[in-house]
Amino acid sequence: MDTALSEEQDAIRRTVRAQLAHRCGPDEVRSATRTGPGYDTALWQALAQRPGLPGLTLPERYGGAGRGATELALALQETGRALLPSPLLATAVLAAPLIDGLGSDTQRARLLPRLASGELTAAFAVPSGSLPVALGLLDPPPAHLPQAAGGSGDWAGGGRAGGVQAVRDGGEWRLYGECAQVLDGHSAGLLLVAAHAGGFVRSRTLLFLVDGDAPGLVRRRQEALDETRPLARLEMRDVAGELLGADTVGNGGDPGDPGDTVGGEDVRGALAGAGHRVAAVLAAEAVGAAEGALNRAVRRVGSGERGDGPAGPFAAVRHRLAEVHVQVRAARSAAHHAAWAVDAGTAEAGAASGTALAHGLEVLRLAAGEAVQLHEEGGVGEEDAAQLYFGRAAGSEALFGPVHGLRSRAAGVAGLFTGSAGEENATAAEENGGRGVAAGGGGPRAPRGTPAAR
Predict the structure, then answer these.
(1) 337 within domain boundaries
(2) Contact yes or no for 30/40 (Cβ under 8 A)
């Protein structure tokens, strides 16, 4: 692989960094988080126009730039460095790719141009705490009760109480239930909701489009560990939903009607595929935040050494920060490699992205802890700024972790463990004639390398 950034990739990185340099300091970040939407809407529109972040990976025919995970990862590395509060993650990384991948032609034509322009924001709603399981980043929890046929959708409620249930009422779908910890769910104009349909025996997970102002929808912003990443609780009481991928002119998307191709396995497969990209991009964002926290800690040490205080106490600190610096560079290499693997469609994409995310979150926690410790005596403003990075570290791991779970899942996907995961990979390899398994499994490994980071 080419380890250098292309001219276009470097331009994306430099443009995002320049726009955030003077508009995303600690004071601006805190002010933005305390607004109704939870972000600076003017800055969001500026980033939507140049370099076009919301549509960076969407097809050009819908107003996007048609780029890949590598470009998106570079952009989020910069937004992570500045701790930018924005709907970028919820809209461009989680919701829009699923709409592009599973939506009907009519739905894509209606929604993707608005998402690409930043006019419309979106959120992906799943039951509380199940987002990383839905995306295939964590193993599902053990089933304590018999599962319905297929039994792999317990993260969305399993057809029982909990989560969201979808009921076909004449020519419409109606949604009932609730989801908590929905990223940007309080302000998104469009919700992509995972819900169960078909009753207990035939239960399967489907995705529905819900208007943010739909009657019967109640949205409440929740307290969050990370001030820069607002979460919401959604309550749906007889809310109208549009089945994602349904031919609304034809059969209306009834899973029992002939010709409907949007089944539970399609949804789960699409979510697992999206999870590889989500993990790679999140890893880059975590690395960017770690770089921001480390830079703040280094500046604090430099200012202390230039002052009247003794330089001796900072000697040990410098050694610790040097170790953090090495860890950050390793995590950055892993994140860039994961993004490349996703774009290249290699067999190692799933394991590489999961491992990169685990390393990125771990390094962010380490760098943020050093920043907080060093700024405890640096004044209220400095300590508050360092606390923002610590909040991002805690919030990101709570939403997408834990780190040990990510590593365990990545190892299983790579076939490093014996048991069910390894047996599944072996079976898949045999079915593919020994050529390797689907993305995220084992098979021949691509050459490793890292894009140069400037």
Answers:
(1) yes
(2) no
Q: Is there a contact between 332 and 3 (Cβ–Cβ < 8 Å)?
A: no
Of 242, 239, 95, 96, nearest to 176 by C-alpha is 239
**Does 294 lie in the same domain as 216?**
no
Spatial separation of the C-alpha atoms in residues 98 and 90, rounded to whole Å: 11
pLDDT digits (tens, 9 = 90+) for 109-167: 999 999 999 999 999 999 888 999 999 999 987 654 333 333 444 677 654 556 899 99
End-to-end CA, the chain: 18
Q: What are phi and psi of 221, to 5 degrees?
A: -75, 135
> Which residues on adjacent β-strands are paired with residue 193?
125, 208
The amino acid occupying position 447 is: P
The β-bridge relationship of strands 122-125 and 190-197 is parallel
Verify that 394 and 308 share a domain, yes or no. Answer: yes
Q: Is there a single domain that holds both residue 237 and residue 251?
A: yes
Say which DSSP state 91 is in. I
Q: Answer whether residue 454 is part of any domain.
A: no
Q: What residues make up the domain containing 370?
A: 267-431
**pTM (two decimals):** 0.85
Longest CA–CA separation in the chain, Å? 79
- Amino acid, single-letter form, for residue 387: Q
Both tokens of 24, joined, read 């995303």
Please state at what angle helix 69-82 crosses helix 264-306, rounded to 10 degrees: 40
